[in-house]
């Protein structure tokens, strides 16, 4: 017998199928089997050109970025060395020369 995977949020074993979606009756979380497979394999983070990024890469900023809570701007062409990939809204943790530690979105950088 085929057993459905437990809920990724609350680990409930009582998941059920609703069309192509899997649903947890305890917490109400809905997801697809494809989303779960991507999460298990590990999401691949790509730059603006579609190149796969890895920890320790050097990237170049492709757009002027305002630094939140400051009047500083990260200019186009700024090279950022030794990036660290993280989960969440902002994919990259890094240290920008002259500004300090920041989080960047992978859509605003290209691999150097």
Automatic annotation (TrEMBL):
NCBIfam families: phnA (TIGR00686). InterPro entries: YjdM, YjdM_C, YjdM_N. PANTHER family: PROTEIN YJDM (PTHR30305:SF3), PROTEIN YJDM-RELATED (PTHR30305). It comes from Marinobacter halophilus. Belongs to the YjdM family. Residues 45-112 form the Protein YjdM C-terminal domain. This is Protein YjdM. Residues 3-32 form the Protein YjdM N-terminal domain. Pfam families: YjdM (PF03831), Zn_Ribbon_YjdM (PF08274).
